[in-house]
From TrEMBL:
This is phenylalanine--tRNA ligase. InterPro entries: aa-tRNA-synth_II, aa-tRNA-synth_II/BPL/LPL, Phe-tRNA-synth_IIc_asu, Phenylalanyl-tRNA_Synthase, PheRS_DBD1. Its cofactor is Mg(2+). It is an enzyme of class 6 (ligase). Belongs to the class-II aminoacyl-tRNA synthetase family. Phe-tRNA synthetase alpha subunit type 2 subfamily. Its main location: cytoplasm. Keywords: Aminoacyl-tRNA synthetase, ATP-binding, Cytoplasm, Ligase, Magnesium, Metal-binding, Nucleotide-binding, Protein biosynthesis.
Length: 593
């Protein structure tokens, strides 16, 4: 009836700012017919609630409706539904225009009631059955409707989250040919935080007007109201927009410019019947069983397609620690280069094999309690190869094999002290002695195991860590051969840019530190230590004079920390390790970025 009233009152001089008391007084003074017309004006223009209408004249209403030849031209509002119950059946006699309007509103009411009941029923099904019933409900809705189902509208009707509808549609897509889906997107304007504040409490201008006094003050001209009341157009426009009302494009642009509204894109789906559409969902078989093959039922069965893009199910078994993953990669590199693995099951070692056999003097600082863990029980070892023990004692105290030795009083008691091994070179010493006793054969050996140092704990140092060590025993082996082995070894780790720097080790001469260029840090970093074992270490074991032995070592923790992006070694090894980190850690490939 909005168009009816606007046409009937186009020449009425009405000020929306008039006070409510003046409006009621105007209505009461008017005659019956004029009162009805005036009520219609106030009803539409001033947007007063229906109870302010004093009288309802059927003749006046019939005349107002006569201006429109088609009921479809009406813009129906809630006010039409408010007036409709006021009209009695007797009022419709001999008033065709009023009767036509009355029938139209009645049909519209029935239609809305039917739709409301359907939505309520569907909503109740969702509430009772949950999301599991949605696929069936969607199929039934598509079957009854001639138009494709819009997922956004459907979710709004059911008053549920749109993602639940999307999930149901995705489950239906698993059945081939059941439905066809097109992706659609809608643009809409949503109120920003400031826009919502204005829509609820009024615009800033309106609030300012409300704070200005009606009379003002003589000395403050700006505080005087020039109008008794104003209409908060900004608040009204925002409310109309939020309720889906029609708002002029220029007004929308202005609201966007003021950042009171923002444009958002909503993605949804339009669902229609597929080539194999059915209201009944047949359950697809997941596995091909022996019974299906025997009976032949597989020929008519429908099988669920494999989703090769799915993440898969995480295995419930244990997971390798990152250190073990890197260790496995190191072992593979050693094996591919012809190395054999040494036995490293001696955590407790005598000082003889840990220090003396390596031509490391008993006064060396590394043997002090500040760097070594000494075992209290048993505190001393007693079994040594006596002839080898004497040769080691001699080369330390008097020299030999072309060396002057250290010239000090070598003590057996010091060599007998048990320690937690400080390096796996003690294992290499045992293996080289065994190699000499069994008759020398060229050998390549490696070990990866735990060693212990009495060091201060910090982000890069622990009291126990893992050492990777390689040993090569060959006749006429040179330093150039050793550098060639290093180059190939680290190349298989993905490290090609190497540098070598001379250094000092008690049991190797010459000795080298190995550096590699770190692309992430943009600098050279030390990655290992190496050297040729001294004759004072090899010849007392019984190895031939033309045999040279090269050794090199590096830690297991440093490359693991770099590979997995761990900054604190205590997050990698020890009681503070996060088990989820172990669970999520990927497979290690040292030669891949």
């Amino acid at each position: 009836m909005a168009n009816t009233c606007s046409r009937s009152t186009r020449n009425v001089d009405f000020e929306p700012e008039q006070k409510m008391e003046s409006i009621k007084e105007l209505i009461n003074k008017a005659g019956e017919r004029a009162r009805w017309n005036l009520c219609q004006v106030l009803f539409r223009v001033a947007e007063l609630p229906f109870p302010w209408m004093v009288d309802s004249s059927p003749d006046a209403l019939n005349k107002l409706l006569a201006d429109f030849p088609y009921i479809q031209s009406f813009e129906v509002t809630t006010r039409d539904f408010q007036v409709h119950p006021q009209i009695l059946p007797a009022d419709l006699k001999n008033r065709p225009h009023l009767a036509r309007w009355h029938r139209n509103i009645a049909e519209l009411k029935n239609s809305l009631n039917s739709e409301s009941k359907m939505v309520a029923s569907t909503t109740e099904q969702v509430a009772q059955g949950g999301v599991e019933n949605l696929p069936q409900m969607i199929l039934e809705t598509i079957d009854k409707s001639k138009e494709p189902l819009d997922s956004l509208q459907y979710a709004a009707q059911l008053k549920i989250d749109h993602q639940r509808v999307v999930g149901a549609i995705k489950s239906l897509q698993a059945h081939e040919g059941l439905i066809e889906v097109d992706e659609v997107s809608q643009k809409r304007l949503d109120l920003t935080a400031e826009g919502k504040e204005i829509a609820e409490g009024g615009s800033h201008e309106f609030k300012l007007f409300e704070h200005i006094g009606k009379d003002g003050a003589a000395q403050a001209e700006l505080n005087i109201r020039k109008k008794d009341s104003v209409v908060d157009e900004c608040c009204k426009q925002l409310n109309d927009l939020s309720l889906g009302g029609n708002v002029d494009d220029k007004i929308k642009a202005e609201l966007k410019k003021r950042k009171l509204v923002a444009e958002v894109v909503i993605k949804g789906f339009r669902v229609r019947k597929g080539s194999n559409f059915s209201v009944t969902i047949s359950k697809a078989e997941i596995d091909l069983t022996p019974d299906m093959i025997t009976t032949g039922s597989w020929k008519t069965a429908t099988f669920k397609k494999y989703n090769f893009d799915a993440m898969g199910v995480q295995p419930s078994c244990g997971h390798l620690h990152p250190l073990m993953k890197v260790r496995a990669e190191f072992r593979q590199i050693f094996f591919s280069m012809g190395f054999s693995e040494m036995q490293t099951n001696r955590y407790v070692e005598s000082s003889f094999w840990n220090f003396d056999a390596l031509f490391q003097p008993q006064q060396h600082p590394a043997r002090d309690a500040h760097d070594t863990f000494f075992v209290s029980d048993p505190a001393a070892a007693t079994q040594f190869p006596q002839d080898y023990l004497e040769r080691v004692k001699t080369v330390h105290s008097k020299g030999g094999y072309g060396s002057s030795g250290y010239n000090y009083d070598w003590k057996l008691e010091e060599a007998q002290k048990n320690v937690l091994r400080t390096h796996t070179t003690a294992v290499s010493a045992r293996q080289l002695y065994k190699l000499a006793q069994e008759g020398f054969k060229p050998a390549r050996m490696f070990s990866i195991d735990r060693v212990f140092r009495n060091e201060t704990l910090d982000a890069t140092h622990l009291a126990e860590f893992h050492q990777v060590e390689g040993v090569i025993a060959e006749r006429n082996l040179s330093l150039g051969h050793l550098i060639g082995v290093f180059t190939e070894f680290f190349k298989r780790m993905g490290i090609e840019n190497l540098r070598f720097k001379p250094t000092y080790n008690p049991y190797t001469e010459p000795s080298m530190e190995i550096f590699a260029y770190h692309n992430g840090l943009k600098k050279w970093v030390e990655i290992g230590n190496s050297g040729m074992f001294r004759p004072e270490m090899l010849l007392p074991m019984g190895l031939p004079e033309d045999v040279n032995v090269a050794g090199y070592g590096l830690s297991l923790e440093r490359p693991t920390m770099i590979r997995y992006g761990i900054n604190n070694i205590r997050d990698l090894f020890g009681p503070k390790v996060d088990l989820q980190m172990i669970y999520d850690g990927p497979i290690c490939r040292l030669d891949k970025d």
